[in-house]
């Protein structure tokens, strides 16, 4: 029920702050008041607006390009059943319906999502989702900081740069230092100095992403995982491409106590800026530190299976500033989509899609590396993304590719200046052999043009 | 409500029983009753140094999570491991088997400012 302020309320509040009237409270001072009409275009009719925005929409030509973009946002096939189911009115609500008496369906869906995340990561518990993979990493690091009370965070330099950036933002207000482990020439995390660093028992956690930002499988070996255990350092696994979980060793098996990841690949289409859907899973030891909502299964008074929010006493509406996190918001609708995706595909279906990604990306690697002037930068095993060295600045090569209708990938130099000659390319089950041929042909042209430009530039500079 | 006379009380509803240079700490009957069914207790690490009045753990019931403060300062020498498997001990015997942790006291005048059973009874009746 909406209870407006009474006239008496308003008078009392105004008296308390010493202002005579509401008009005076919000008054714009005379000298800065705008006199003339705002200089904006005249209002359009509804038909006019539709036509104007159709015109804008036509400028969006992304879909007509052959794309090899990845780097944390992956193009995957979305079964049409998802659109039909997820867009039903019952699900399309701005506020996630958690009330157990009326929301058993939604709560069951979230419970199933948590179950899938546990199955895929090999861990005991998962939450109802968080904003995105980057937030998930930051929240996972805070779980570790709270678990052992240490003040230093160690992360691999091969973790998605935007994830590291969000982690930094999170830790800014806390007295936490973030340090990085370097990467080897093979494009994986260098664990050589790990024992030496962790011996001080000052690090709350070590975070490693696999597949890492370069697409390489990057899991700590048994020694590294043991060093973490022995020194009480929480090992955090980061997953930016959730589909890889269907093909690779579950992170719990290589020693991850917490897994933070991004599940956009499960049925959520790539869109400029999102939405994305992050997940956090952990072993039982961290049950009371995992942030956000958790749905649990119980029985009602009649003994029937029922689903409810559980462990809420840790959350901000009860614990205020001492809550596990001050973001209880999650991506329930995207998590619902991901759950539908996993249910529609099933275990074998998901495995088939992951296998197709392995296959297409190998085809891409073989074809591109056979081109004159192109080579694979790393020899490490990869999932569906590769780093291609074009042996000249990558940025103009990508511009040339774009002119030829190809989004060739991400200019790695934007995030790693030492790899400014490299392009990060992804191939998924949607990448066809024809797409790869279109890329290779455009790439040959682009390399010819850019090498000529380079020669001219060289002449000038001499 | 039960209010043993041989322990001292804090305004935050903890009790402390001093025996030589050792102190045993728990929460009061009033505290457990206000919290309701206790489902989890997070205790300080054995060996850690805690300052008087610091937050050293949490007590979680089905309806709330409260900080656990220590009424005296010292080094944690033991925690009640039984509470891990049966946190409801705190509800059943808050002054007995539901104790929480033991400290080796830093000084001798630590219980200054803490309340007697009568003073605490007065506080909880307000």
Question: What is this structure's SSE topology?
Answer:
The complex is a heterodimer of chains A (462) and B (126).
Chain A (H helix, E strand, L loop, with lengths): L6 H11 L4 H4 L20 H13 L7 E2 L12 H7 L17 H18 L3 E2 L6 H16 L3 E5 L4 H12 L4 E5 L12 H5 L4 E7 L12 H9 L3 E6 L18 E5 L15 E5 L12 E5 L5 E5 L6 H4 L12 H38 L5 E2 L8 E5 L4 H10 L2 E2 L2 E2 L10 E5 L6 H29 L1
Helix pairs in contact in A: 4-11, 5-11, 6-7, 11-13, 12-13
Chain B lengths: L7 E2 L4 E6 L2 E6 L1 H7 L2 E5 L6 E2 L4 E7 L3 E5 L4 E6 L2 H4 L3 H4 L8 E5 L11 H9 L1
Antiparallel strand pairs in B: 1-2, 2-3, 3-9, 4-6, 5-8, 6-7, 8-9
Count of helical stretches of chain B = 4
What is the residue-mean pLDDT of chain B, rounded to a whole number?
91
| Spatial strand order of the main sheet of chain B | 1-2-3-9-8-5
Major sheet description of chain B: 6 strands, antiparallel
What is the SS-derived class of chain A? alpha/beta
Question: Looking at the chains present, what oligomeric state does this protein adopt?
Answer: heterodimer
Which bin fits the share of residues in helices of chain A? 25-40%
Looking at the structure, what is the overall shape of chain A? globular
Report the mean per-residue pLDDT of chain A as an integer.
92
Helix content of chain B: 10-25%
Count of DSSP helices of chain A? 13
Q: Structural class, judged by helices and strands of chain B?
A: alpha+beta
Number of strands of chain A: 15
The unreliable regions of chain A are: none
Q: Approximately how much beta-strand content do the residues of chain A carry?
A: 5-15%
Cα distance spanning the termini of chain A: 78 Å
Largest interface: A-B, 6 and 9 residues
């Amino acid at each position: 029920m909406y209870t407006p302020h009474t006239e008496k309320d308003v008078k009392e509040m105004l008296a308390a702050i010493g202002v005579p009237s509401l008009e005076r409270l919000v008054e714009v001072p005379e000298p800065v008041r705008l006199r003339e009409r705002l200089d904006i275009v005249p209002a359009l009719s509804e038909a006019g607006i539709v036509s104007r925005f159709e015109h804008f929409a036509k400028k969006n030509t992304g879909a007509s390009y052959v794309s090899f973009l990845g780097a944390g946002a992956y193009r995957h096939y979305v079964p049409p059943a998802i659109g039909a189911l997820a867009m039903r009115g019952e699900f399309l609500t701005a506020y996630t319906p958690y009330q157990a008496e009326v929301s058993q369906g939604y709560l069951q869906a979230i419970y199933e999502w948590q179950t899938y995340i546990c199955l895929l990561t090999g861990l005991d518990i998962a939450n109802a989702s968080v904003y995105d993979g980057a937030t998930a990493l930051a929240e996972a690091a805070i779980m570790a900081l709270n678990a052992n009370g240490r003040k230093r965070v160690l992360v691999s330099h091969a973790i998605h740069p935007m994830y590291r950036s969000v982690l930094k933002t999170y830790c800014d207000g806390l007295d936490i230092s973030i340090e990085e482990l370097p990467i080897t020439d093979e494009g994986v995390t260098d664990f050589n100095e790990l024992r030496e660093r962790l011996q001080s028992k000052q690090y709350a956690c070590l975070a490693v992403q696999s597949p890492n930002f370069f697409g390489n499988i990057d899991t700590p070996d048994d020694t590294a995982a043991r060093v973490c255990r022995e020194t009480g350092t929480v090992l955090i696994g980061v997953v930016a491409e959730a589909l890889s979980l269907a093909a690779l060793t579950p992170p719990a098996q290589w020693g991850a106590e917490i897994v933070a990841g991004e599940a956009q690949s499960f049925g959520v289409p790539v869109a400029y800026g999102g939405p994305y859907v992050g997940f956090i899973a952990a072993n039982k030891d961290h049950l009371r530190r995992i942030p956000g909502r958790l749905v649990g299964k119980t029985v009602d008074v009649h003994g029937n299976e029922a689903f409810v929010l559980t462990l809420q006493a840790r959350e901000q509406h009860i614990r205020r500033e001492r809550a596990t996190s001050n973001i209880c918001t999650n991506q329930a609708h995207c998590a619902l989509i991901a759950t539908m995706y996993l249910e529609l595909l099933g275990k074998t279906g998901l495995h088939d899609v992951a296998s197709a990604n392995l296959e297409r990306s190998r085809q891409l690697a073989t074809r591109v590396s056979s081109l004159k002037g192109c080579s694979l930068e790393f020899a490490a095993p990869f999932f569906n993304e590769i780093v291609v060295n074009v042996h000249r600045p990558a940025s103009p090569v990508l511009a040339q590719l774009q002119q030829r209708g190809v989004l060739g990938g991400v200019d790695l130099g934007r995030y790693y200046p030492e790899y400014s000659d490299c392009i990060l390319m992804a191939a998924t089950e949607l990448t066809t052999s024809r797409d790869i041929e279109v890329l290779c042909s455009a790439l040959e042209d682009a390399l010819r043009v850019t090498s000529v430009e380079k020669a001219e530039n060289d002449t000038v500079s001499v | 409500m039960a209010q043993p006379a041989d322990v001292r009380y804090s305004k935050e509803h903890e009790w402390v029983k001093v025996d030589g240079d050792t102190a045993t700490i728990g929460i009061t009957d009033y505290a457990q009753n206000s919290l309701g069914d206790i489902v989890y207790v997070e205790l300080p690490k054995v060996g850690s140094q805690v300052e008087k009045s610091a937050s050293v753990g949490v007590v979680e019931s089905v309806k709330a999570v409260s900080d656990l403060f220590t009424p005296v300062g010292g080094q944690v020498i033991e925690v009640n491991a039984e509470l891990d498997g049966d946190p409801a001990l705190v509800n059943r015997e808050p002054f007995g088997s539901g104790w929480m942790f033991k400290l080796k006291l830093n000084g001798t005048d630590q219980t200054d400012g803490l309340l007697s059973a009568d003073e605490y009874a007065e506080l909880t009746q307000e």
